[in-house]
Amino acid sequence: MTAQLKIQKRTSKTASDKNNRIEVLSTVDFVAPDDRVVFRTCAKEQNRVVFQMGTSDAERALAVVRLVENDVAGIDVNMGCPKEYSTKGGMGAALLSDPDKIEKILGTLVRGTRRPVTCKIRILPSLEDTLSLVKRIERTGVAAIAVHGRKHEERPQHPVHCEVIKAIAGTLSIPVIANGGSHDHIQQHLDIENFRQATGASSVMVARAAMWNPSIFLKDGLRPLEEVMQKYIRYAVQYDNHYTNTKYCLCQMLREQLESPQGRLLHAAQSSQEICEAFGLGTFYKETTQEIDARRVELLAKTPEEVGEPAEDTSGVIKMAVKFDRRAYPPQITPKMCLLEWCRREKLAQPVYETVQRPVDRLFCSVVTIAEQKYQSTLWDKSKKLAEQTAAIVCLRSQGLPEGQLGEESPSHKRKWEAPAQDPGGPRTQKPVPPGELCKKPFSTLDNGEESPLEGW
């Protein structure tokens, strides 16, 4: 059976969404159907980054490899993760009890890609079984094998079995990468070589110690943690890393300092901006995001054809391939809000949104009706709210109306509303006010002069 893969690769050449940040960030993104970035990389690390995956299916694993192989230096299969989220799916350390499946997965990948394939395992209860397994793995043609020197049930507080790694290294002809030495053996750069010699391995894989302080790889010694964390935060902002992942990594660095004033600020942070402010980088965040927004605005101005022109299908629905990106709009301004305000000024009925969910991937699509004309995006969204915002964008853009985006030009040149010919309403005498001018605060002015919160915002 051919594996069906829902992850898509996106680059500046394949992006079809006007609000896509790929070209702005100069990245290569691999995204899920709901536009969630699963893996992001860039040309700078193409010959360095090794893509590690968890899998229990050879064909699906090969499909993933063929998707990413042109953007990474190598492929690694994690066969040592003891966490339940891996083992329940037959991945990670669960594979250690099924050598036939291990052989099938690795053999399929080695034959199916030109990139070097490696794997990471844990040791088995007996040395004899461990050596038997690694010999089978070697015969699949993998380029190297990483060995975490603990058993499935053992955790970091248990001592790493250096002697078992050494026995494996003495048995195999391919490189053996020693893993599991953080804290007990590795606390500074010099310790990495000492651990390699103690295990007889070709090289060392460092995990926890690198998360605690990534500067452990510098030969001239560890950098102050504050300096390392600030540098990491700058990279995270520049490459639009999700704040929850940034926060997790910083918590790993702070460790016992999480109860400090700075640690409490980090724990309370609910955005990248708040993280930056906790580390004295508020100005950097503001300037960097402004630069990113400016590049996006410039890109949008140069490539309007990527979005395509609105087109009316046989059912009379006007469609366009667009999506809503909250980051492209000022705070407290949305396309729905702009469209609602404009309809009120034009004396049109309030927009009506009809939303459906697609069962196969649980994505949403919304149709908005204005003066008996329907508008819809051809792209699906991960939530009902996003789908409605996208439908509002189609309506606004198809009518040449501003939608409140950052850097949007003055609306004075935009054309008036084009109502369908069958519009039963009489002539409107009030001069239309485009929504871009009305979206400066989240309140609308009623006919009696009072202000009320916008509906459906």
TrEMBL record:
Residues 402-457 are annotated as: Disordered. Residues 335-400 form the DRBM domain. Residues 448-457 have a biased composition (Acidic residues). InterPro entries: Aldolase_TIM, dsRBD_dom, DUS-like_FMN-bd, DUS2_DSRM, tRNA-DUS-like, tRNA_hU_synthase_CS. GO terms for molecular function: flavin adenine dinucleotide binding; tRNA binding; tRNA dihydrouridine synthase activity. Keywords: Flavoprotein, FMN, Oxidoreductase, tRNA processing. GO terms for cellular component: cytoplasm. PROSITE patterns: UPF0034 (PS01136). PANTHER family: TRNA-DIHYDROURIDINE(20) SYNTHASE [NAD(P)+]-LIKE. This is tRNA-dihydrouridine(20) synthase [NAD(P)+]-like isoform X7. It comes from Heterocephalus glaber (Naked mole rat).
